[in-house]
Amino acid sequence: MTSLLAVLIDGSIYASWLFLVAAGLTVIYGVMRILNMAHGSFYAIGAYSAASLVGWYFNNGMGPAWVSYLLLVGAALVAGLIVGVIVERGLLRLMYGRDEILMVIITYALLLILEDGMKIVWGVSPYFAYQPYSELGRTSLGLLKVSNYDVALVGVSALLGLGLWAWLERTNQGKVLRAVIHDREIAVAMGVNVKLMFTITFVLGTTLGALAGALTAPAISVVPGIGIEVIVLAFAVVVIGGLGSIGGAAVGALLVGLSRAAAVHYAPEFELFVIYGVMSLVLAFRPEGLFGRTLARKI
Amino acid sequence: MRLDKTEISLGLIALACVLFGFVSPGWLIFLLTIALAKALVVQGVVMQMRSGLVSFGQGLFYCIGGYTVGMGGQFFGIHDAIAALSLGMFVAIVVAMLLGLLLTRYREIFFAMLSLAFSMILFGILVKSQELGSTDGFNVHDWTLFGWAPEAGAGSQHTVFTMTVVSGLIVAVLIHRYTKAGIGVICEAVRENEVRVEYLGLSPRWLLYGNYVAAAAVSALGGGLTALATGHVDPEMAYWTTSGEFVFIALLGGLGHVAAPFIAAIVFSFVRTYAIEFVPHTWQMILGFTLLAVIIFLPKGLWSLVSREKTGERA
Amino acid sequence: MKNNKSKFSKYLVSGVAALALAAGAAGSASAAENGKFRVGIVTFLSGPAAGPFGVPSANAAKVLVEELNKGNLPAPYDKIGINGAEIEAVIIDEAGGATKQVEEYRNLVQRQKVDAVIGYVSSGDCLAIAPVAEELKTFTIAYDCGTPRLFADNPDAAYMFRTGLDASVDNIGAVRYLAATRPDVTRLAGIQQNYSWGQDSWADFTAAASVLMPEAEIVEEQFPKIYQGQYGAEISALSVKRPEIVHSSFWGGDMEALVLQANARGLLEDATGLLTCGEASFATYKDQAPNGMIIGARGPFGQFAPDNELNTWFEGVYQNAYDLEPVYPATKMAQAILGLKYAAENAGVADKEIPSAEQLAAAMKGATFESVSGTVEMARANGHQAMQGITYGEYHYEDGVASIKNAVSFDGECVTPPEGVAAADWIADGFPGAKCN
């Protein structure tokens, strides 16, 4: 019983983290058709900004702890905004209309540059921002002790998902964005400022990535290379759910999260294969992912 | 057999490379060997790219080739290099024939991610295999060529280099003929518009399948040669960043000509090794900027340096 | 199209020629004999291993080379540079995998013409380099990698040496420490990164525990992917089995994240953590690691290095240069450089002369030299592998100061298999011939 409960809890926590990481990726792909390899770097930039800001806050005289949560989110927003605008205006704008695969490679080059760039800015020593994590304490459920911060993350992730969904489905801007997703050319013909929508989307995507990093930072040691590790995970989740679908990313994250937690508890030797196994299985039966749209074949 | 001018040029260059091998320093031969062996894997990527598929898992066959050569010598007593390389290609073909049945149903990013997934599954299996040294891998040594054992050091290095150049030449000529033949031209048609090709009464799927299997064999050859040259194999060969590097080199060279992957692989190796020497802390950044520069100024890859001048001459 | 084909050969040949020329020029430039002792230093400058291992090691190398060139070291290392010749260090990034490292090693030796190479944290890199070192006949010191296969797979190694200890020593030492300080422990658990290092460490630890602590059982083992960073599910799986000891060979960011998360979730209050590489993050835990957590330094290095004159001096200059205490990878790098200096100055060549690789190897083989970690005996693997003792202790943090308590040291012969015996066999046979203090 305990371990079943543990699987559910661990699985949801991991899934909420996966969703946070994957959401930005799927938004950018959905609208711009860019598979952003540098998404992991935005995650890492968010983590570094948050960790250095929160670390600085606590090292220079203790203020109230709740401020640090604002700092976490604030650091992510600012970092995501700045990096997003620079990359979109300075680089991607020159490249629109190129082959999808070429865009993948452009973002790959960006990843290489940003990885070393972060090393220049933050060095290689670890950064910590553990106070927000330990401050919230933990809850005991029998033998199982759960960190409240992790549980809160599930809530944040759910709220974020709902917010994104509501924005896309319930607002005017969302409607325009969906029009761009559905058919870019018709949208342009209808007078949609696609360029502006692209900027908004890309900045939103990078900010989501940075936010995922910032919210993860308190529980980890922020070191070089953390961004590389999340890319493939995020890609897998997005592909499982269907590219460009927020709901799909959520379901994909849950599927991977729960399977992984189950593997850790019941069959640790398969843990390494879980994510790729799930992805292969899903794609074998649903070649476009769970919520992907089957596109009409153009002649 | 009539050779066209490209084939003659390729043959002459290969001969020049082999001769050059006798006068150049050891490190340069090694660098060229690895670059050319990797270029074979890149050829596999490019073959599929011509028909519109991008494999982010070509490391799978690179790794199969390398491990078959290593395990052949270590466990099954296959010490002959040609036999081991052929066995590696054979294993890769068998695996590709199975996986291809599934993979050729997919396009675009789904093909990319699924090929990546299979490569990562092999990586996982190798990491779990402690008999094979897990992530540390194992050494490849004591190989022979038709019963002749090249002396360790410079001798075996030259032998692998020559083998790699000859393999590269054979593969290049075959691919050149293939792309010029009707079926190769159809590959481009598949990339442009698959449905129309179908309406012409051809099966793009089986074309892609054949492509996939052939690319696997070529990549395994590259992996096997890398193993012989390095003297070591490890699961990193199947890791997704390795496959990413192959796509990187493929785009660096462009799809313009069969020689492009070789040139791109050599340029890539030189840029990397000198970046590591002169800016050990930020060499990745140099690679990133190089790639961006190529994409911005030479959208069709390094090969467009050659073809662009040509169009100029013609005008 | 046709008339263009004839241009191909011209372009290609001129391209190849240009590359060859460029390479040749670069090659001859660095091949200039300048009378300096060139040492290649290879360690991680990028990626997750850079922070905990690579950069502290590279920093140690830089400061030590600088001081050596000024002749500032205490005796017996007070001679300028190496054997009177100024040292020139060529530092290279170890990231990128074994194939790339073989390529870079060849570049170091054949293009940069280094006289010796010191490096390698990754066991895979060490294993790939070993045969190449023999092929190129280059004196090479592995300073950190831990695989016992280094000399088991290369029994005839003539040019490859290792001044650090192999990983089985870490885990035999860890079990001996538990048996000495916590003999009543019965429930052991482990969490390792899923790659060679983690797998080998856990195999040695469990084997040694079954001999030295027969009452203890293994209640849980977890193998998360390396660099995963999030250990929520693994910590739950460990917690529900109520272990008394949680052994881990984690390192770097993974280890710090594990400690952070396991501590916040109470696992490290209910169970005692035992981290074989724990000392590398000694300065970063602060109050995030519980008092009493057992940490090791893979030998008498870092915080566990003795208070001898050399080490006091080394800690002083390192602290001066970087405002940090040296962690174990830094000490190990210093040890390798001192080993090289010892070999060069005892190779029987004239002052300022640079000995050949054969002379260096002959002087190093079976040598006993003084180091920052005390006396090092090259007493295993035909005199190519260092033998030293190992120390474990508990981490304590009070009033903003971290310290080690209850440290226990074990002699080299207590934790190292006799010559020619594989660690696994030695453990299984019940440590025959072990001499413990």
UniProtKB/TrEMBL annotation, chain A:
It is a multi-pass membrane protein. It comes from the Bacteria. InterPro entries: ABC_transp_permease, BCAA_transport_permease. GO terms for biological process: amino acid transport. One of its GO terms (cellular component) is plasma membrane. Keywords: Amino-acid transport, Cell membrane, Membrane, Transmembrane, Transmembrane helix, Transport. The chain crosses the membrane at residues 12-35, 65-87, 108-129, 149-168, 196-220, 226-258, 270-287. Coiled coil: none annotated. It is found in: Cell membrane. GO terms for molecular function: transmembrane transporter activity. PANTHER family: ABC TRANSPORTER ATP-BINDING PROTEIN, BRANCHED-CHAIN AMINO ACID TRANSPORT SYSTEM PERMEASE PROTEIN LIVH. Belongs to the binding-protein-dependent transport system permease family. LivHM subfamily. This is ABC transporter permease. The lineage of its organism: Bacteria, Pseudomonadati, Pseudomonadota, Alphaproteobacteria, Rhodospirillales.
TrEMBL record, chain B:
It is found in: Cell membrane. Keywords: Cell membrane, Membrane, Transmembrane, Transmembrane helix. GO terms for cellular component: plasma membrane. InterPro entries: ABC_transp_permease (IPR001851), LivM-like (IPR043428). Its main location: membrane. Pfam families: BPD_transp_2. The chain crosses the membrane at residues 12-41, 53-76, 82-102, 109-127, 158-175, 246-271, 283-303. One of its GO terms (molecular function) is branched-chain amino acid transmembrane transporter activity. It is a multi-pass membrane protein. This is ABC transporter permease. It comes from Thalassospira profundimaris.
From TrEMBL, chain C:
The keyword Cytoplasm does not apply. Residues 1-31 form the signal peptide. The keyword Transport applies. InterPro entries: BCAA_transport (IPR051010), Leu-bd (IPR028081), Peripla_BP_I (IPR028082). It comes from the Bacteria. SUPFAM superfamilies: Periplasmic binding protein-like I. Pfam families: Peripla_BP_6 (PF13458). Gene3D superfamilies: 3.40.50.2300. Residues 37-391 form the Leucine-binding protein domain. GO terms for biological process: amino acid transport. Keywords: Amino-acid transport, Signal, Transport. Belongs to the leucine-binding protein family. PANTHER family: ABC TRANSPORTER SUBSTRATE-BINDING PROTEIN (PTHR30483:SF37), LEUCINE-SPECIFIC-BINDING PROTEIN (PTHR30483). This is ABC transporter substrate-binding protein. It comes from Thalassospira profundimaris. The lineage of its organism: Bacteria, Pseudomonadati, Pseudomonadota, Alphaproteobacteria, Rhodospirillales.
